[in-house]
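thought: fold this chain, then report.
action: predict
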Amino acid sequence: MGAAEGKKGIRSLNEVALAAHSLSVGYKTGRFNRTVVLQDVDLDLKRGEFVCMLGPNGTGKSTLLRTFGRMQPPFAGSVEIDGRNIHHLSNHALATLLSVVLTDRLSVGRLTAYELISLGRYPYTGWAARLTRNDHKIIQWAIGATRSHDLAARDISELSDGERQRVMIARALAQQPTVTLLDEPTAFLDLPTRVEITGLLKRLTRETGLAVLMSTHDLDLALRSADTLWLITPEGRVEHGAPEDLILRETLQSTFSSSELIFDSEIGGFMPLTPAIGNALLIADGLSGMWMRRALEREGFRVFDSRAGEDIDVEIVANDSDEDSPWRLKMGNEEHHCSDIGSLVSRLRSLH
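observation:
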């Protein structure tokens, strides 16, 4: 089955799949009181778009996602999928448009992966819940799209967390939805598996036209993978745009930086605020030069590639012609030759 068949036919990727209009969300605190965490939210998610939703803890990511999934009502405004208000849809109709993958580890008994994926066909099987030849064809397509062939016959209880998430995504895909919502699907996975699952979601948006919204705390992966970021700020705003645009507007920096942490716009990641201990002149090119710079900055040095009128405390020079001691460290009247970055940094600590 091709991607177009699996998605009931891919329409224009510029079409809005999910939209929020003047949305106000929050939670009840007692019988009559309620707390609003976000208000006047206007957002849209397009077909074939991979959006990552980020924000500090307690800013309303899960609340907003649950409202999109009709797991809790909005205080004001509306949510639409394919232009249809989700609160005007039956459960059956909504299940043909929306699938959800949660972080919670669901208890599914002794089901095989294939049987769990087949549950994604429940909106289409009727009261008898009998799978037709076409249902099995779509299940096989979902298994193929998520590259889960080797998992299909295994019990869910035997799968690793990463394999289980892959199967849950296949189940969501078997629903043939317009939109898939995922609440921190990589939260308990190791780094290679987080990269793998995020890459899978990105690939599915391209191959099927599926609109994917994923909440996550993994800023690095979001910056590298998402088409668009929805960033919930501590002030209760939802900033949105391409990852690069949010960096250039310094939105990420202002949202996540703290007294001990800064967001470095040049490397696109967080750096601890290490007290400056001196200036280092680094004469090195290529990959080894880049990683030496990182090591020196981690130690608290401001790194320069020329003297440029700066007072230089240490000088590090790459010497590629010496395989045994490719790094030369000069500090005052002392000079040392080091075999690798780790030994040079250790020597620096002993001298400084």
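thought: worth noting. The longest strand covers residues 16-28.
final: tokens above.
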